[in-house]
């Protein structure tokens, strides 16, 4: 028997599902679990992956939320069988190193994307460098983001960024509502690259940075790179993994 730990978001639907599943299948502590089943939406899945990244157990999500791109369909009867047959995909997060105007430094991991967004009424002015070379001296925009392939269908796609194959060794660098250069549509950069974004006129045009809902206010410099040492293991039902979902998303 597979030892399963069930976790649920605070939502009523997820809490009810948790109660029924534990009553039916039992529950195991996180430290002893072979598989973690997360009940909720994509936001809760991201929280679970971050909170359990120090454990060896993979995470199998069941959708009790809204979109559920990272989740499998919800079912109570065949959980053990589905977990046993599930296919594993490994993704690496981004690491964000942000420096605020007061000199404080902040670090965070992001499975989907690291984003910078204007925090005032005026557009942000950003300077973008890749591996130490300035590529865009001034981008006037509402913000910019660096996305992983796994996160490319989330905020990145809403900002008209490209959908990336899950195994691609590239990251998407995408502008949010670019004003100047108006036609700049972003860039694809090697996964091994480091992106540096400097905030110009930071006092006049304040900017916040965010790594999977971990926010830092009044940033002046943000460094972003992939973190290969951290491996998030996610389980999907056969034929419904991230590769299939990324392709399907492009035809809707």
TrEMBL record:
Instruction: Please name the catalytic residues of this protein.
Output: 42 (proton acceptor)
Q: Where does NAD(+) bind?
A: 42-43, 112-113, 142, 150, 153-158, 177
Task: Enumerate the UniProt keywords alphabetically.
Answer: ATP-binding, Cytoplasm, Kinase, NAD, NADP, Nucleotide-binding, Transferase
- For this protein, the Enzyme Commission number is 2.7.1.23
SUPFAM superfamilies (alphabetical): NAD kinase/diacylglycerol kinase-like (SSF111331)
The domain of life is: Bacteria
Q: Which cofactor does it need?
A: a divalent metal cation
* Single annotated GO MF: NAD+ kinase activity
Question: Which InterPro entries did the record assign?
Answer: ATP-NAD_kinase_N (IPR017438), ATP-NAD_kinase_PpnK-typ_C (IPR017437), NAD/diacylglycerol_kinase_sf (IPR016064), NADK (IPR002504)
This protein's major location comes to cytoplasm
Kinase among keywords:
yes
Enumerate the catalysed reactions. Answer: NAD(+) + ATP = ADP + NADP(+) + H(+)
Residue stretches spanning the membrane: none
Location in the cell reads: Cytoplasm
- What is known about what this protein does? Involved in the regulation of the intracellular balance of NAD and NADP, and is a key enzyme in the biosynthesis of NADP. Catalyzes specifically the phosphorylation on 2'-hydroxyl of the adenosine moiety of NAD to yield NADP.
Similarity remark: Belongs to the NAD kinase family.
What is this protein called in UniProt? NAD kinase
Source species, please? Tropicimonas omnivorans
């Amino acid at each position: 028997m597979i030892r399963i730990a069930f976790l649920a978001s605070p939502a009523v639907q997820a809490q009810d599902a948790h109660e029924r599943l534990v009553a039916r299948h039992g529950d195991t502590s996180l430290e002893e679990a072979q598989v973690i089943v997360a009940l909720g939406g994509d936001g809760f899945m991201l929280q679970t992956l971050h909170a359990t990244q120090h454990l060896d157990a993979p995470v199998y999500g069941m959708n009790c939320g809204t979109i559920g791109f990272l989740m499998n369909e919800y079912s109570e009867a065949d959980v053990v069988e589905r977990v046993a047959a599930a296919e594993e995909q490994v993704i690496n997060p981004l690491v964000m190193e942000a420096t605020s105007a007061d000199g404080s430094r902040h670090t965070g991991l992001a499975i989907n994307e690291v984003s910078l967004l204007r925090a005032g009424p005026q557009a942000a002015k950003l300077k973008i460098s890749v591996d130490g070379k300035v590529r865009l001296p001034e981008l006037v925009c509402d913000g910019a983001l660096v996305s992983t392939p796994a996160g490319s269908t989330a905020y990145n796609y809403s900002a008209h960024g490209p959908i990336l194959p899950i195994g691609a060794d590239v990251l998407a660098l995408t502008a949010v509502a670019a004003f100047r250069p108006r036609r700049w549509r972003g860039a694809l950069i090697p996964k091994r690259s480091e992106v540096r974004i400097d905030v110009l006129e930071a006092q006049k045009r304040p900017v916040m940075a965010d790594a999977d809902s971990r926010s830092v206010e009044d940033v002046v410099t943000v460094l972003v790179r992939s973190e290969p040492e951290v491996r998030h293991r996610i389980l999907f039902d056969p034929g419904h993994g991230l590769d299939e979902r990324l392709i399907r998303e492009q035809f809707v």
